[in-house]
């Protein structure tokens, strides 16, 4: 298991705004997947200029979301970056005490959702290229439950524990060199109340 903070809880408006930028969120997600990368590597992934990517990486670092990593190559001019934690969490309760904070939280949540939806749309568009094994394994479901707020919180905790277990299993396999057949997998879960 990583020695990094498991899941950094963002509670201040400045850090939320720093992350809630379309390019910065893509760069942060790219670093979570790669675990460490240079601005050049990330610029190639997001199809942006290296200078622009470097600027946004420095902004993420200013707020402690990412940090410099040990160099992974002999080129001393390359600056490597890595996430400062294994992920972030953003809770409504930390941003509801002022209209500006609530509005920023809503805008950030919408951005994160749109980027997640775009990831799924890309998978759907490329589905034929993934082959039958991945298509059989990929999941999209909707379940309607009747829960209390406390039960929903308990379910969320159970799901997080399950995801952590699989994350640790994948990380251990990667560290052991067992990468054959492994791909990055996004799991998006939304749980919210609604009325018909």
UniProtKB/TrEMBL annotation:
Keywords: DNA-binding, Transcription, Transcription regulation. Residues 14-97 form the HTH arsR-type domain. It holds the Pfam family HTH_20. SUPFAM superfamilies: Winged helix' DNA-binding domain. This is Helix-turn-helix domain-containing protein. It comes from Streptomyces tropicalis.
